[in-house]
Design goal:
By secondary structure, the chain is of the alpha/beta class. It has ten helices and twelve strands. The radius of gyration is 32 Å and the shape is elongated. GO terms for molecular function: DNA binding; DNA-binding transcription factor activity.
């Protein structure tokens, strides 16, 4: 026998009130409609559930036996509905570091899509994040795909081409310019904080420095504030090299200069497990990609930009089949 939960609910509320008028008010039903539901349930069960009089209602023996299981049945039905409508598990996304471009990128997307549910982590490098991705501890990670996505288990999509910038103090010989070229850095050299576990960033910078013959120094510093940046730059006699989206220190005696001719760009892609077919993940990938197009995240013409050859090859190949 299939029981209509609407009939069961009408019985339980009426059994609790023992008054058809009050029960009808709770259910938003007229007394006539409620009586019809109780009558239909009694016909299905082939037992009277209430003893009725002009003033009161009471449960029959069958009604008393049915009440407990009926409440359990309603609770199970409510739990089933709640399971369907329960919010989905947040998508777990690693941004590598909270000072880097992907963290700001995700924050911008979340601001425009408040219903998006993400759980953010920052493992400070693909060498740490990729194993977590393969173990399904995270669902996606931002990074440079060259060399990282060689395994067929990882899919990827380009999200952002982030330009490099040079930061100098106001008294530096380059400070009066509006832009600088990589060739202009050869005589000055550049320095960056040690990349630590972010070996993909360190490798990219080394390839850039080698390509243009720029002296490069990796410095072990805990926190690059404006004062520390100036102190280290002056002590080393070198230019601080960074990326445009990084939360770089701001100060009146610091000047940020775009690099051009060619424009070096750091390719941020989103990486995920190739066999992860969940719509929520692929909707997030599409959202990032489409939002990036609106914001000009990939607006630079690659013909006018510098990328390591291995990055161009990885991006030209596109996402692996099925990704």
């Amino acid at each position: 026998m299939d029981l209509d939960l609407a009939l069961v609910r009408a019985f339980v509320v009426t059994a609790e009130e023992l008054h058809f008028g009050r029960a009808g008010e709770r259910l938003g039903l007229s007394q006539q409609a409620l009586s019809k539901r109780i009558q239909r349930l009694e016909e299905l069960l082939d037992r009277p559930l209430f003893e009725r009089s002009t003033r009161t209602s009471a449960l029959t023996e069958a009604g008393r036996r049915f009440l407990g299981p009926a409440r359990d049945l309603l609770a199970a039905g409510d739990a089933a509905v709640a399971a369907v409508h329960r919010p989905a598990t947040p998508l777990r996304v690693d941004v590598l570091h909270d000072r880097l471009g992907p963290a700001r990128l995700v924050a911008a997307v979340l601001a425009g899509n408040p219903r998006l549910r993400l759980e953010i982590s920052a493992r400070r490098g693909l060498s740490l994040a990729l194993p977590a991705l393969r173990r399904a501890e995270i669902d996606a990670v931002f990074g440079r795909v060259a060399g990282a996505a060689a395994a067929t288990a990882v899919a990827h999509r380009l999200i952002r081409l982030e330009p490099l910038v040079a930061v100098v103090d106001a008294g530096h010989p380059l400070a009066g310019r509006s832009t600088v070229r990589p060739a202009d850095l050869v005589d000055h050299g550049v320095w960056v904080p040690s990349p630590g576990s972010a070996v993909e960033w360190g490798t990219y910078l080394q390839l850039f420095a080698d390509r243009f013959g720029i002296p490069l120094t990796f410095e072990q510093v805990d926190n690059v504030g404006a004062d520390e940046l100036l102190r280290r730059g002056r002590a080393l006699g070198r230019v601080f090299l960074s990326a445009a989206d990084v939360a770089n220190p701001q100060a009146d005696d610091l000047v940020t200069l775009p690099l051009v001719e060619p424009r070096p760009v750091y390719p941020w892609s989103l990486l995920w497990r190739r066999n992860d077919r969940r719509p929520v993940l692929h909707d997030f990938v599409d959202l990032l990609h489409d939002y990036g197009a609106l914001e000009g995240w990939r607006a630079h013409d690659l013909a006018d930009c510098w990328l390591p050859d291995e990055d161009r090859e990885a991006l030209a190949a596109g996402p692996p089949a099925g990704g």
